[in-house]
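Appendix B, Record 12. Input sequence as logged:
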Amino acid sequence: MKRQFPAYKMLIKLFFFLFWIHTVPVSEGCGEVYFSNDSYSFNISQIYNISLSVRNVSSPFTLLLRSSWDRVDFMQNNFSITGDDDFTASVFTDMQYIYDIDALCLHKYQQNETVLATTRFIVAKSAEDSKLQLRFGIAINIALIIAMFFLGTDLDFKIILSYIKRPIGPVIGICSQFIGMPIASYVIGYLLLRDQPFERFGLLLIGCSPGGTSSNFWTAFFKGDLNLSVTMTFCSSVASFGLSTFWIWALGSQILTGESDIASKIPYLRIFAAILSLVLPIALGMFFKYKKPEIAEKIRKFTRPIFLIFIIVSVCFGIYINRAFFSLVGVNHALCAVLLSAAGFSVGALAAFFGRLNKDQIIAVSIETAIQNPSAAFVVMQTTIPSPYSDMGSVPVISYMAFATGPPMLLALLIFKLVEFIRSRQKGSKESDPSLDPATDANGIKLAAQTNKQQTYGASDNKGFQS
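Logged structural output:
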């Protein structure tokens, strides 16, 4: 049997509901708020004033300005509105970013906040930071030229020429770099950075920027084929003129739909200068080795420490210069860097393995594929897109340096050297203690000698038997 409600109770509830709607003005009293612009552009560490207008106010309310990120400071973000008015709000921030600013209505009759208007703060980096970054780039380029000269003294021109004449290794490496890495960066960005187009574009730039000189250093540290590594770096740098441009146009235009002419903005002159800064010092180092082999052999002893110092200094200063970006780095960015690096090592190693290359060559191809050129990605980003969009797109580059090529590689090198040290100690112990040699018995007597002696006796016995 259904439960029945008396009619008078239903009427009482309807009366209170209509009274509540009548006494709570949902939109009345908030009025209308207008920003003077749809967006504002200014630099960090700069106090900027924005103008607001309030119209059609029927009852007092509180106007609250709120940023999408708490890095924006308002001199005053809470205003009491009693009627139509025009006023100014002063803002300040120390982080370049794109902020959405909402104007909210707080009414005593309303429980929820009402968004009346929204504008955007496009905050670019300061001129001082731009100058500091430029000086840092110049210093790194000078140090890189010196390091490349020392690298040239460690190379064999005949081996490099043989690779160029029979380019099986370089071709395998270039296919891994220009097919596997761009596709991997696009897929990873699509999965983890789908709603952040400029950051997706920055990750794509990393995947399309092979030819990093740091890969030559890491190949030398991990005892890979250094000649193959440098040959691949040179070939991929030359190939990047066409192939990098193609991938940026083909995939980048899908990410930044409003930037259909991205490929036409690629700084070819700077890329050519980067290639020259790589090739010329190496060629001079090789020529110096040809003319002064004795001195070059002495210099060769210092190449590894110089490479290590260069990497540590460049990573430390790079982190300091871009320290503000670490507040933007999230779990997704770190995961993108790790996945892209792992994809590079895997694709390079598998391609070299199936290409029947030896162990040293597999190490070189794997490192060359995984260790990209973040400097080239920075150049393309900074020259194609203005700040702060370029700064946001540089977040994946910073993440890649921090979580893929910087501290993780140093940790891997430390483990690699530790394993080498342990193996060398074990080998030295076997040489000093004959009982640990598998070719000796418990008394330390050489089994090989005994075997030869037994074979000699056996031969004489057989000879006597035959006679």
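Residues 26-124 form a domain with the Immunoglobulin-like fold (CATH 2.60.40.10).
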